[in-house]
From TrEMBL, chains A, B:
Tagged with keyword rRNA-binding: no
Organism of origin: Bacteroides muris (ex Afrizal et al. 2022)
Domain (Aminoacyl-transfer RNA synthetases class-II family profile): residue spans on this chain: 1-397
Protein name per Swiss-Prot or TrEMBL: Histidine--tRNA ligase
Entry's Gene Ontology BP terms: histidyl-tRNA aminoacylation
Pfam families named in the record: HGTP_anticodon, tRNA-synt_His
Length: 453, 453
């Protein structure tokens, strides 16, 4: 029975130090969400497959973890069906539940099921793991947390403004310098509209994105190669060369998109969001970036993405406005806007830049060395006082060798150690040792508390 | 596609109010764990079935949620195997992973896999959901959280003492009056030993438990019925009638168990734990209770259980000392002691006794009513100040009818509302309305902050 245990590939154990860091990340995000009036919900890890299937494309369906039905999952299956060995088709017979793939579909399902209890606009956040049977690779896991916030049931652009304030506040608190990039689906649609190539949005944004690297001539050549007409390419020139401040870019776009109602609406929305944010004063830069083209089959208005300035890594937060969150479950007219912080990447960035505050990662503040039964009994009384004052403290439970006990303090990075011997007990005091400086002094329990507070 | 969505039976959505209450419970437990030097870990939701199977008995194996292998899970299966329709046997072919059933087995697996990184004694806590394909019924769910703390790698009874202090502190913070019941497996073994009926421990504890209800004669009759000899029943009399303070009970047991080394060891351990706790001064009562017989095939020393005094409900916390946590994974000699708080039952108790502190459940403290674009722009600036001061505040994103906006404040139980019109903007102030008293006054942003702090 002594099998060497392992964990499923793509999953992780989190050690105490990793957990402290992860909690620091989640708590920081959570606190800021609360400051803006967002409320937490949780949904079950399992959803009915009928809720999940068909929501993430054919590829997504394959990446769902399916849970085998309890009991006799063969019932009702003919020999022919079984022997067909059709893994996809039979999965739907063997399994009726699956693990959640993201937080958006369960949220949509939640809104529909609880619509009568919810007061709209509904500002909800959700921090829970999701599961995907993706091929595991560096930085990609089969179980990972998402931290989403959405406002549904309000079309006001103040929601976009506040989400950008949240992003700015969270990364300021982390000490991560970022550039917030913003775009608008309607501007992209407007561009496609005026050049008459509505199916080429992605080709256009990809080509524009290469301007710095390959130069204007090559960008134009690439557009031509993608089948875009000379006339359209000519019209695109001011957009490819779009430059300057956000205000300057918007002014140019207003001219170029003059013939597109949708495009102008996108410019207007971006203008409102950017000018309101300017008057509120963000700590981080926000930049209108037309090459930002995430979630084009999903987002209908503003699109955002956050890039870390001091670390080479993909986007660490993203989001946007969408229509009709819940239509697929029979409730139409619920639009919203949301963001999602990439906790795993933020974890990596904070590690690389060594930005975790000491107090966030440190656990126990004080360890009592155990010299024997009498000394331990004395220590336990002092411990009770110290803990009542809110200080995280422990006693080494066994009267082991000093070296082992000090090694324990070191490996847990405990900054102070208390020593209690005959002398200390007689005087009703403890000797407090600062593990960093090596300094020692005898103090009363009250002094101990104020030293550590 | 407009299917009416549902969630798997035995699972739950948690609304914002429920989440606030649950977070209050988890945070309280977590804070006390930290005060005692416990560190958090997390393990994956999925474990290899080889890790889980055979650890919870045959019944437990059936209650595991199994995850279907990705890709072609039929590969390597003969027609005969398939047509056998042996659900249990084929599950092990179709599935190699399962959802965790408790936190103990994953913890044991964690200790074995990470033994070289861990400094012992290892004081870990873990707060995560577990899944069981049990028949759902009132108060029993297929997905629920466990909140476990264990110390492994130390035989010191100070660990038992500290776990009881943790229990005492947690329930004191909750305001739930409890009785902590403690027993010791070695005392029960000693009793069985001296009466020569080692397989009858459970029958004996069950019968003793009925003393108050059915009286001594009936208890003795029941013991006889269970096949216990007259001589053994005679020896059991002082134990059945055990009474008085913990000290008195222990004195009696010392006499009765004089001939059992194991029994005396159990008495000695209980004496140490109870006398140390007495000198430390618990807020709640702790009682030696021989009828406490949980986890007899698992616990080897102290056994504890916590009962709420003011609500009729089963045990709300339990635990004990065990040997050989990790033997099944090839690492012997790791003993430990642990407790587990029953979060769902504590949730019910706090609800029934209405003990949630207001500040734990309340979210947003201040709502700005939205009277239009200009007013909203002014409000957003005040909001930024208020939030920078740490006050949870929001603005109704749309300039909807007053009634709708006030209804939103009411349904979210927001205690203060800020009104901004022409007057307020001219004076650089806001009108602050206390939603409970109806009182209104004009205040500067600075005054607003100090009112709400």
């Amino acid at each position: 029975m002594a099998a060497k245990p392992s964990i499923p590939k793509g999953t992780r154990d989190f050690s105490p130090v990793e957990m402290a860091k992860r909690n620091y990340i989640f708590n920081t995000i959570r606190e800021v969400y609360h400051l803006y009036g967002f409320q937490q919900i949780e949904t079950p890890s399992m959803e009915m497959l009928s809720t999940l299937m068909g929501k993430y494309g054919e590829e997504g369906d394959k990446l769902l973890f399916k849970i085998q039905n309890s009991g006799d999952y063969f019932s009702g299956l003919t020999d022919e069906e079984l022997l067909s060995r059709n893994a996809v088709k039979l999965a739907s017979k063997f399994c009726e539940k699956g693990l959640r793939y993201d937080l958006t579909v369960p949220f949509a399902r939640y809104v529909v099921m609880h619509r009568d209890e919810i007061t709209f606009p509904f500002k909800r956040y959700q921090i829970q793991p999701v599961w995907r049977a993706d091929r595991p690779q560096k930085g990609r896991y089969r179980e990972f947390y998402q931290c989403d916030a959405d406002v549904v049931g309000s079309d006001s652009l103040l929601n976009e403004v506040e989400l950008m304030q949240i992003v700015d506040t969270v990364f300021t608190r982390f000490g991560i310098r970022v550039c917030i990039k913003i775009n608008n689906r309607k501007i992209l649609s407007g561009i496609a509209e005026i050049i008459g190539e509505s199916d080429k949005i992605v080709d256009i944004t990809v080509a524009i994105d290469k301007l710095d690297k390959i130069g204007l001539d090559n960008v134009n050549a690439e557009l031509k190669e993608k089948g875009i007409s000379d006339e359209a390419i000519a019209k695109l020139q001011p957009i490819i060369l779009l430059n300057g401040s956000n205000e300057e870019k918007l002014a140019t776009l207003k001219e170029v998109l003059a013939a597109s109602e949708t495009g102008l609406k996108g410019v207007e929305e971006s203008e409102f969001i950017l000018s309101t944010l300017k008057s509120l004063g963000l700590k981080n830069e926000i930049e209108l970036d037309l090459t930002l083209a995430r979630g084009l089959n999903y987002y209908t208005g503003a699109i955002f993405e956050v890039k870390a300035l001091d670390v080479q890594i993909g986007s660490i937060t993203g989001g946007g406005r969408y229509d009709n969150l819940t239509g697929v479950f029979g409730l139409s007219g619920v639009s919203g806007v949301g963001i999602s912080f990439g906790a795993d990447r933020i974890f990596d960035v904070l590690n690389q830049l060594d930005l975790y505050p000491k107090e966030a990662v440190n656990g126990t503040q004080l360890l009592f060395i155990n010299f024997g039964e009498k000394e331990a009994a004395f220590s336990m009384n002092v411990l009770a006082e110290v803990r009542a004052a809110g200080i995280r403290a422990e006693i080494f439970p066994d009267a082991s060798k000093m070296k082992k006990q000090m090694g324990y303090a070191n490996s847990k990075a405990i900054p102070f150690v208390a020593l209690v011997g005959e002398n200390e007990m007689n005087e009703g005091k403890v000797t407090l040792k600062n593990m960093e400086t090596g300094e020692q002094k005898m103090v009363t329990p009250q002094e101990l508390v104020s030293e550590l507070k």
